Amino acid sequence: MSDQSLREQLVWACRILGMEGHGDYTLGHISVRDGDNVIMKRNGIGLEEVTQDSLVTLDLDGNRVAGEGPIHLEAVLHTAVYRKRPDVQAVVHTHPIYSTAFGAVDTKLEMINHDAVLFYDGLAYFDDTAELIMTREQGDAVASALGDKRVVVLRGHGVLVTGKTLPWAVYAALTLERVLQIQSIARTFGDLKPMSDEMASTVYQDKYRDEFIGNYWSYLIRQVTRAGMAPEDERAQRPSTTSGESVERAGHAPEQVIV
């Protein structure tokens, strides 16, 4: 996948998460691995404001390689995860309402529906500090807490979500917030009745496939465009929804983009 394609994807990823309530003023950031470098949004703008001109490229030690504007203080979260997890190609760190609230209580994610099954192998937790993660040592500690999991909950802070592609990372972040909202509502009705581990594993195999993620990503791009939140400088073709191209071309948007 070319650098241009990754940059397009990252812009859409930011705007999708902004549309879906992951924004917190100018806080929160998303990145994608590009070889030995990391592309991420710069500091000082909201998720829904990101364009290709507001992206910065860093090496895995956090040094600027390209792009202008301030670098997020917590960029070490991203570089640390990429150094420790070669399988991770994208990282999302945001402060969504339900995921952040979930980290403030002593409970666990239950396998109550299909959304929860995406996380059937569990979540990781980081509770060493609720401070901003600004040093290499702190970043490494979060990456160690993440281990081989998809998500690490940062107690008193927010959440960090990983993916093998940007569409996967965004989908996981959206799905986590949705299932935690459902779990919060379900508890008001009575005791939870989660499915068995065996059932969760079976549902996971049926539901979470790359071709589905490509279709979901294409839908999210259309949704951003209909909401008037598409970037003005993105005029690429709408992504294909065929299984062969859906994820690879997922950074493309409809020709007519209106803000």
Summarize the entry for a quick read.
The protein is α+β, with helices and mostly antiparallel strands and 259 residues long. The protein has helices at residues 3-19, 75-84, 97-102, 114-117, 136-146, 166-189, 197-207, 210-226, and strands at residues 29-34, 37-41, 55-59, 64-66, 90-94, 124-126, 151-154, 158-163. The protein is built from eight helices and eight strands.
Description of the structure:
There is one protein chain. By secondary structure, this protein is of the alpha+beta class. The protein has a single domain, classed as L-fuculose-1-phosphate Aldolase (3-Layer(aba) Sandwich). The protein has helices at 3-19, 75-84, 97-102, 114-117, 136-146, 166-189, 197-207, 210-226; strands spanning 29-34, 37-41, 55-59, 64-66, 90-94, 124-126, 151-154, 158-163. It has an eight-stranded mixed beta sheet with strand order 4-3-2-1-5-8-7-6, with helices on both faces.
